[in-house]
From TrEMBL:
Pfam families attached to this UniProt entry: Trehalose_PPase
Catalytic activity: alpha,alpha-trehalose 6-phosphate + H2O = alpha,alpha-trehalose + phosphate
Protein name, per record: Trehalose 6-phosphate phosphatase
Superkingdom of the organism of origin: Bacteria
Keyword annotations from UniProtKB, A to Z: Hydrolase, Magnesium, Metal-binding
Keyword Cytoplasm part of the UniProt annotation: no
Summary of the function given for this chain in its UniProt record: Removes the phosphate from trehalose 6-phosphate to produce free trehalose.
Organism: Falsiroseomonas oleicola
Its EC number(s): 3.1.3.12
Keyword Magnesium included in the entry's annotation: yes
Length: 242
């Protein structure tokens, strides 16, 4: 078992989705969620008094689609949160990138068969997994566009994708906000993720005395990570992990 900085029963778990809980797929809609994963996460959340949250770049509705269980979720890299499993959705007021940026990115993607844009509420992703030759040029285009409003927007490298996001939110702000309120407050944060976009969440967890774990280093693969979660759930259920 991965060592915790405290008794596991006192931890607050923050889990990335793509590349951590599920394997990366060719397209965002093609990820395969193991049938037993949602209920495993729901049981883990219950053992932790609700202090388990999915913290993802995905929109909240997609997280609800892939993980249709009552657990806390933060989507769009911290731009939308549901801190309590069945509670209300919370969204800070955020600007959207200029329409001209989206139009230029869309025209760029159209020139590379396989590349496409994924729209989000306050940003967009330019995916190039099926057009890898587009990656560097896409990065240069979006770097140039974001430089027009660097205080408001950030460009994040993701797995075979570039994402334009509001600068004021991140997985770090999501973890900090959740840790400020029940049932997360007072627990020791443990963030597990696989990507550059997870580093802000890991950093906040570490600064709070917890753990920021990179999946590849600590677990290897999403499958092995899911196995670890199942073992942890069993221990918490039997009361032998505290
Ligand atoms: O924060 P995450 O839960 O890791 O989500 C990050 C982004 O994941 C998705 O894109 C990535 O996963 C796809 C499915 O495996 C893959 O096809 C793509 O190449 C990856 O970049 C999702 O589409 C984004 O919205 C998330 O921000």
């Amino acid at each position: 078992m991965q060592d915790f900085p405290t008794a596991p029963a006192q931890a607050a778990l923050f889990l990335d989705f793509d590349g951590t809980l599920v394997e990366i797929a060719e397209r965002p809609d093609a990820v395969v969620v193991p049938p037993d994963l949602p209920s495993l996460l729901e049981r883990l959340s219950a053992h932790l008094g609700g202090a388990l949250a999915i913290v993802s770049g995905r929109p909240l509705l997609e997280l609800d689609h892939f993980l249709p269980v009552a657990i806390a979720k933060a989507g769009n890299h911290g731009a939308v949160l549901r801190p309590l499993p069945d509670g209300p959705v919370e969204q800070p007021a955020l600007a959207s990138p200029p329409a001209a940026w989206r139009a230029k990115a869309g025209a760029f993607a159209e020139a590379f068969p396989g590349a496409f844009i994924e729209d989000k509420a306050h940003g967009f992703v330019l995916h190039f997994r099926q057009a890898p030759e587009a990656g560097p040029e896409a990065g240069m285009l979006l770097t140039s566009l974001v430089s027009e409003a660097p205080d408001d927007f950030a460009l994040m490298p993701a797995h075979m994708a570039w994402e334009v996001t509001p600068r004021s939110v991140s997985k770090g702000t999501a973890v900090a906000y959740l840790m400020s309120r029940s049932p997360f407050a007072g627990r020791v944060p443990v963030f597990i993720g696989d990507d550059v976009t997870d580093e802000a969440g890991m950093a906040v967890a570490r600064e709070a005395g917890g753990l920021g774990l990179r999946l590849q280093d600590s677990f290897g693969t999403p499958g092995r990570f899911r196995d670890w979660l199942a073992v942890l759930e069993g221990q918490l259920a039997r009361g032998v992990a505290a």
